[in-house]
């Protein structure tokens, strides 16, 4: 259950939702892409209540990359990425050249062209994750919502996917467990605990030692490096 959640982001912002297991990150994301309707309150996109939009109107503006992957999915990588074009399809016509071009472009962006003809079900977890991001990009959305997009990825692909998302002129809303990745990637952070957003703002203002220590029940300490904008959190158990 979410309570008292109010925030706004602008086009082009990158929002990371950070918080412990069960804090409500996935539930908040579901509300944002209209996977569930809020019991109270509303989600607006450009001042319009999302509930007033058709699923197709939402899908043309918002692409979603979820953690759950279909186990047995008899499609090739190329087919899966083309599915991102469904909201743009008119009537019962087949794929247009533009659909195929958008899909190719997205596959190239995610370094997946060599896997285009493979069965999706035969890919590794990380490869599947990249295919689902490619499908979201082929959808040509304004907003991409991702639930733990780096979950199955090795460190290089984690950095690559977040760097790619950061270079696209899209609005990104993503849950992230890795606080260091969130601090580097996001323009805004929403810190969540027990269904509430307890802090919202610039990563430097929200991701403080005190806030992270309190919310996760650990000792968090952020080290900043001389002459560099980057920083690194280190963590230890509060009792150790
Ligand atoms: N469909 C549901 N019915 C009942 N409770 C639910 C449902 N979905 C989520 N919850 C509960 O709501 C709370 C928030 O869950 P949510 O999945 O949003 O957390 P989360 O922050 O994404 O957690 P995690 O980091 O573990 O993925 C949890 O206590 C969860 O058990």
From TrEMBL:
Keywords, in A-Z order: ATP-binding, Nucleotide-binding
Pfam annotation, one family = ABC_tran
Q: Does the keyword Cell cycle apply?
A: no
GO MF entries: ATP binding
Q: Does this UniProt record's set of keywords contain Magnesium?
A: no
**InterPro entries (alphabetical):** AAA+_ATPase, ABC_transporter-like_ATP-bd, ABC_transporter-like_CS, P-loop_NTPase
- Residue span, ABC transporter domain: 1-219
Family to which the UniProt record says this protein belongs? Belongs to the ABC transporter superfamily.
Instruction: Name the chain's protein.
Output: Iron ABC transporter ATP-binding protein
Q: Which organism is it from?
A: Rhizobium wuzhouense
Per the UniProt record, the lineage of the source organism begins with:
Bacteria, Pseudomonadati, Pseudomonadota, Alphaproteobacteria, Hyphomicrobiales
